[in-house]
Design goal:
The chain is of the alpha/beta class. It has two domains: 14-402, Alkaline Phosphatase, subunit A, CATH 3.40.720.10; 413-492, Arylsulfatase, C-terminal domain (2-Layer Sandwich). Helices cover 20% and strands 17% of the residues. It is built from nine helices and 19 strands. The strands form four sheets. Strands 1, 2, 3, 4, 5, 6, 9, 10, 13, 14 and 15 form an eleven-stranded mixed sheet that branches. The two termini are 31 Å apart.
């Protein structure tokens, strides 16, 4: 296939990476023909590109996945060993660590992050006030009002995207509709100062400081508008651009009041389904902007999600094994488990990639891959060698993008990690889960933290892909071999040779 050429004669592609928040394998039509949610834009993208069937987020929750995407390194190697960041924690990525953005910026890309960040920022405190920013991670999920009132929101917030390789940032510090502070940040300054305490939080979101004009339902339309605006602005003849785009949908709260009016009732799967439709709408806005600006033919687009889905809309006051409205929709398809779980539903993701003239339209790949593989893939695309102290868990997916029938495996094994810190390793057809016989996460069926040395789980993913038959007790020698391999990878500090 011929190399598409941009307006400047530069054959390096623009790169757009769109990552939804809690979108499941079964939400998207090209993965689940029985979905209750129309996703015409993602389906079109798959028709024009490649769809991966065995792609995984490095974690079953958001912060550690985002760390892995940006650095090519598993987050459990960092200071955050389980759980997520919530609101005012300091940056998780060290300034000296190479990121996808800094890699691409070094070779002439203009780089932008739009939407959810959720990897920590350095917030300033008011004169005479102190906060223990060095306390162990993760912090409590609810921030005391007295702590928030010590933050000086008029001061720059450092250690975020613009300090880690991005030329431009417009977005939120954490989960846009669930975690304070509720307000947009442009580069390193709040666009509007969070000066109102939002005491009456929307269902499943948290109370906290909010910008006066903030409205949850406006978040994703604004993120979409900013993405289109950015694409239209990229007329620089000197080089291509990298856009890291992170909508808030379909993260909780999954209720109608957080949906823009034009998205309400667009699916047959309730408000959460409408939020997945909203992600698809945003994908369509990006595709349309690329078409209108003549950039589509020289742009590589990835669409995926940061972890598995919740089952549906959480029932207010609901309790029991399934306090969700499901609408006959299977958000994670037939995979066992949901967001936060160590089972497949927690981390097996839709991954759709289009690159006109390079990727064969309508192709499918069964390659085992991880979202951490973005770094090595981008390095290969721009012909850059990665240093030994970067992208320790990232493998180059480019051969599989160019040849969907590639027989040689890109990677032999892959770590999974749950919300509560449960480790799992997939190697060829085998998947071992350590230190629990439960889910490893909080949605029903809720589990506890792993207990070191306790019995775990072993599944034959070739013959039992939906994890119904635990072979742990039947294959002790194999379990021991896989446990030893896990310890080896931990000690080495990398999974790449």
């Amino acid at each position: 296939m011929e190399d598409p050429v941009g307006p400047s004669g530069d054959t390096r592609p623009n790169i757009v990476y769109i990552m939804a928040d809690d979108m499941g394998y079964g939400d998207v039509g090209c993965y689940n023909p029985d979905t209750k949610i129309p996703t015409p834009n993602m389906d079109r993208l798959a028709q024009e590109g490649i769809r991966f069937t065995d792609a995984h987020s490095p974690s079953a929750v958001c912060t550690p996945t985002r760390y892995g995407v940006m650095t090519g390194r598993y987050c459990w190697r960092s200071r955050l060993k389980w759980g997520v960041l919530y609101s005012y924690e300091p940056p998780l990525i060290e300034r000296e660590r190479l990121t996808v953005a800094s890699l691409l910026k070094q070779v002439g890309y203009h780089t932008a992050c739009i939407g959810k960040w959720h990897l920590g920022l350095n917030f300033a405190t008011k004169a005479g006030q102190t906060i223990d920013f060095g306390q162990p991670l993760p912090w409590p999920s609810l921030v005391e009002r007295a702590v928030e009132e010590k933050i000086d929101f008029t001061q720059p917030v450092k250690g975020g995207p613009v300090d880690l390789g991005f030329d431009y940032f417009y977005g939120n510090s954490g989960c846009s509709t669930a975690q304070p502070p509720y307000g947009f940040i442009e580069n390193d300054q709040f666009v509007e100062i969070p000066s109102v305490y939002h005491a009456d939080a929307v269902f499943t979101s948290r109370p906290g400081m909010m910008a006066p004009s903030w409205d949850h339902k406006d978040v994703d339309p604004i993120i979409g508008h900013k993405a289109v605006e950015y694409i239209r602005s990229q007329v620089n003849p000197e080089g291509p651009f990298f856009l890291y785009l992170n909508p808030s949908s379909p993260h909780e709260p999954c209720v109608e009041e957080v949906l823009p009016e034009f998205a309400r009732g667009q699916s047959g799967a309730g408000p959460r389904g409408d939020m997945v439709w909203l992600v698809d709408w945003l994908v369509g806005e990006v595709m349309d902007a690329l078409d209108r600006t003549g950039k589509a033919d020289n742009t590589l687009i990835f669409v995926t999600s940061d972890n598995g889905a919740l089952p549906g809309d959480r029932v207010r006051g609901g309790s029991g094994d399934q306090p969700y409205r499901l609408y006959g929709h299977r958000s994670c398809g037939d995979w066992r488990g949901y967001k936060a779980h160590i089972w497949e539903g927690g981390h097996r993701e839709p991954l759709i990639v289009r690159w006109p003239g390079k990727i064969a339209p309508g192709s499918t790949s069964d390659q085992l891959c991880s979202l951490t593989d973005l770094m090595a893939t981008c390095a290969s695309i721009v012909d850059q060698d990665l240093p030994d102290d970067a992208a320790e868990d990232s493998f180059n997916l480019l051969p599989a993008l160019l040849d969907p029938d590639l027989a040689d495996p890109i990677r032999e094994d892959l770590f999974h990690h749950s919300c509560f810190g449960v480790f799992s390793l997939r190697r060829e057809e085998w998947k071992v889960i350590l230190d629990t016989r439960g889910s490893g996460g909080w949605p029903p069926p809720r589990d506890d933290m792993p207990v070191s040395g306790s019995p775990g789980q072993l599944y034959d993913m070739k013959n039992d892909p939906f994890e119904q038959h635990n072979l742990w007790d039947e294959r002790p020698k194999l379990v021991a071999e896989l446990k030893d391999l896990i310890e080896t990878y931990k000690e080495k500090g990398r999974t790449k040779s």
